[in-house]
């Protein structure tokens, strides 16, 4: 499976392919994680908050190619994407393992993935470098095998998404 | 003088470890007052206004998905827009469940960047590793020492970045954390096999 997870809508529909899934988070109802650990110790693998996030994190887990589209803020994903990523912890177990020499959570059935992050709205080089450090850390916790970040103005995001999706077809 | 506002930005603030860390910090604060509040959607602006009445602001929160929790992110975005009477010095007390306290540093730098972009002076940092469990172990003494030092440094205006974690090998930590989480599951009558399920949403 291949997944586009975006915090903004696109003006034109993306090409329909059986393997591709497109999720516009701006149209989803996704509450904040409440840190209850329910997905680890009460209903393992399932979030206790039954909103749209429960449709999205299984897609993240199943995808071998993933394209995140997000505004960035203070070197972080901005609130829409960050809220979803925080709600994705049911794809991990409570248990800890050693991974790349550090302690990290054990993953459930999560496919190792190639990730591309299209990040818009950055305000400085310092912010871009901090975001790069964040994604490098995410790679350990989200099973990124390879990743690439492209910083661009919001006006160029949609064209970049189409280019990346086209590249999936050719790979 | 000597007033500090502790802002708990944990997603589960009322029953969070961050609340316990803030409580310990308050014990060591020798100034006029160490006041405490919890970020909720309805209180974001009110807490921003309060922040302008203090010379020092201590943000207390957990690492979340490798960065600052969205609870804090949203509050900082509100704070950015406020006209404060004065901009307090911002300090960070962060904890993560991993052994390596260094895993918190990206989140710390997010707060630093917020400060730089918005003209807030940045002050002291304490990063806690194994933060989910350390308060319930004899190693809590190590945290208390660091908090005492942090409180003293903030009062003196001499800011440091400190890290603390359980002094365990990674192998021992893995065993200890497994025991911790199994006990957590048992409280809910969930055993190891269920906790280890590879299924996500039943698939």
Number of beta strands of chain B = 6
CATH architecture of chain A: 3-Layer(aba) Sandwich
| Class inferred from helices and paired strands of chain A | alpha/beta
Text of the CATH class of chain A: Alpha Beta
Q: Looking at CATH, which topology of chain A would you report?
A: Rossmann fold
- Counted by DSSP, the helix tally of chain B is 7
Strand elements of chain A, count = 8
Instruction: State the order of secondary-structure elements of chain B, H for helix, E for strand.
Output: EHEHEHEHEHEHH
Distance between termini of chain A? 13 Å
The mean pLDDT of chain A is 97
Throw out a few tags for this protein.
heterodimer; A: 171 residues; alpha/beta; Rossmann fold; six-stranded mixed β-sheet; two-stranded antiparallel sheet; 5 helices; 31% helix; globular; B: 203 residues; 2 domains; six-stranded parallel β-sheet; 7 helices; 41% helix
Give the topology, please.
The complex is a heterodimer of chains A (171) and B (203).
Chain A lengths: L1 E5 L13 E5 L13 H4 L11 H10 L2 E9 L2 E2 L1 H8 L5 E8 L2 E6 L5 E8 L4 H17 L2 E9 L4 H14 L1
Parallel strand pairs in A: 1-2, 1-3, 3-7, 7-8
Antiparallel strand pairs in A: 3-4, 5-6
Chain B lengths: L2 E6 L8 H12 L4 E6 L5 H8 L4 E7 L7 H11 L8 E7 L9 H14 L3 E7 L11 H17 L4 E4 L5 H18 L4 H4 L8
Parallel strand pairs in B: 1-2, 1-3, 3-4, 4-5, 5-6
Helix pairs in contact in B: 1-5
Please provide a brief summary of the model:
Chain A is of the alpha/beta class and 171 residues long.
Structure description:
The complex is a heterodimer of chains A (171) and B (203). With 171 residues, chain A is of the alpha/beta class. Chain A has one domain: Flavodoxin domain (Rossmann fold), CATH 3.40.50.360. Chain A has helices spanning 38-41, 53-62, 79-86, 125-141, 157-170, and strands spanning 2-6, 20-24, 65-73, 76-77, 92-99, 102-107, 113-120, 144-152. Chain A starts with a strand and ends with a helix. With 203 residues, chain B is of the alpha/beta class. Chain B folds into two domains: 3-166, 3-Layer(aba) Sandwich (Rossmann fold); 168-197. In chain B, 41% of the residues lie in helices and 18% in strands. Chain B is built from seven helices and six strands. A six-stranded parallel β-sheet of chain B has the order 2-1-3-4-5-6, with helices on both faces. In chain B, helix 1 (17-28) packs across helix 5. Chain B is globular and about 55 Å long. Chain B starts with a strand and ends in an 8-residue tail after the last helix. The mean pLDDT of chain B is 96. At the A-B interface, helix 2, strand 4, helix 3, strand 5 and strand 6 of A face helix 3, helix 4 and helix 6 of B.
């Amino acid at each position: 499976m291949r997944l586009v997870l975006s915090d903004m809508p696109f003006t034109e529909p993306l090409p329909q392919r059986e393997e591709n899934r497109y999720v516009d988070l701006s149209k989803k109802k996704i509450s904040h994680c409440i840190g209850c650990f329910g997905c680890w110790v009460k209903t393992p693998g399932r979030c206790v908050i039954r909103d749209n996030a429960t449709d999205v994190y299984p897609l993240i887990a199943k995808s071998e190619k993933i394209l995140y589209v997000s505004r960035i803020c203070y070197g972080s994903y901005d609130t829409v994407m960050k809220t979803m990523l925080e709600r994705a912890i049911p794809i991990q177990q409570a248990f800890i393992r050693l991974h790349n020499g550090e302690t990290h959570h054990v993953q459930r059935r999560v496919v190792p993935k190639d990730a591309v992050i299209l990040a818009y709205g950055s305000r400085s080089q310092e912010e871009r470098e901090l975001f790069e450090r964040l994604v490098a850390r995410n790679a350990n916790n989200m099973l990124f095998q390879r990743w690439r970040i492209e910083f661009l103005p919001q006006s160029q995001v949609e064209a970049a998404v189409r280019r990346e999706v086209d590249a999936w077809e050719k790979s | 003088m000597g007033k500090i506002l502790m802002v708990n930005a944990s997603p589960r603030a009322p029953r969070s470890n961050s609340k316990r860390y803030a409580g310990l910090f308050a014990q060591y604060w020798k100034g006029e007052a160490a006041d405490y509040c919890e970020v909720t959607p309805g209180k974001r602006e009110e807490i921003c206004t309060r922040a302008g009445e203090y010379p020092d602001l201590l943000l207390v929160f957990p690492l979340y998905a490798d960065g600052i929790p969205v609870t804090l992110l949203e509050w900082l975005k509100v704070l950015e827009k406020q006209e404060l009477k004065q901009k307090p010095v911002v300090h960070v007390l962060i904890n993560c469940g991993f052994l390596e306290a260094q895993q918190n540093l990206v989140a710390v730098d997010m707060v630093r960047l917020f400060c730089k972009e918005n003209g807030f002076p940045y002050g002291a940092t304490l990063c806690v590793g194994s933060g989910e469990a350390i308060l319930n172990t004899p190693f809590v003494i190590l945290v208390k020492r660091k908090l005492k030092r942090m409180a003293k440094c903030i009062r003196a205006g001499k800011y440091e970045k400190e890290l603390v974690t359980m002094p365990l090998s990674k192998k021992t930590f893995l065993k200890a954390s497994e025991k911790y989480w199994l006990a957590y599951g048992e409280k809910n009558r969930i055993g190891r096999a269920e906790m280890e399920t590879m299924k996500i949403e039943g698939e």
